[in-house]
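Researcher: Go.
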Amino acid sequence: MIKQPYKIVVFGKEGCQKCHTLNQRIDKMLTRDEWKDFSKAYVDVLTEQGLIEFCNTECINPQRIPAMTVQRLNKETNTYEYIPNPHHNSVDEACGSFKLYTYLGVQTDYTTTGTITPKMIKSILTSAQTN
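Model: Structure:
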């Protein structure tokens, strides 16, 4: 099986409407040619395996689900690795308070709209391709 160069990992939980919306937005984006290098994996944080994967990110606040990260394929090991956030100290106009500090990704900020927008997703995916 050929792996895509990048993998979007969505962290959510069953019954969460915002998780459903985030998945739909990403699925729609991945139908476009500009994102052909990306695949998507969904992680349910209410399962044992999902909780382990969630903890392995070490940077998502459990109260800010849904969240997403982007991983890059390491061709030597044929495994995906989290992409360090290259601009962790800067303000991100598209993602604002949603941006993860450690890795390239976003998490929901319930103090604002509580919605991860297509603009935010695109900003993260574009950043993955350019770093």
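Model: Strands lie at 6-12, 38-44, 67-74, 79-82, 105-107.
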